[in-house]
Amino acid sequence: MQYGILIEKITEKNFPNNYFYAHIPTLGLTTHGKGINGAIAAAKDLINLWIEEKRMNNEYIPASSEIYYSVLELEEHAI
Hints:
- Helix content is 28%, strand content 20%.
- By secondary structure, the chain is α+β, with helices and mostly antiparallel strands.
- The protein has one domain (6-78).
- It has a 3-stranded antiparallel β-sheet.
């Protein structure tokens, strides 16, 4: 089974340098880890735990669909 993830550098002041978010859109989950590889590892762990819990409760586990990524540029005054 495959799930698309989106990796995003964390720029919040309360996080140490070199931490990244890993978003799993299909499951509505987000985690984080040190470095890109750490974020990917955290996402894999989270997905496995999430699926295990869903299976124990006989709940639906959605399959990943196509994932698209885009960037929106906002006017300076909007920020």
